[in-house]
Amino acid sequence: MNNHQYGNEGESLARDFIEQHGFTVIEQNFRYGRYGEIDIIAQKEKLLVFFEVKTRHSSAYGNPSYAITGKKIKALRAVATYFLLKNPEYNSTHYTLRFDCISIVGHTIEWLQDIIR
Question: Residue 97's domain is classified under what CATH number?
Answer without folding.
Answer: 3.40.1350.10
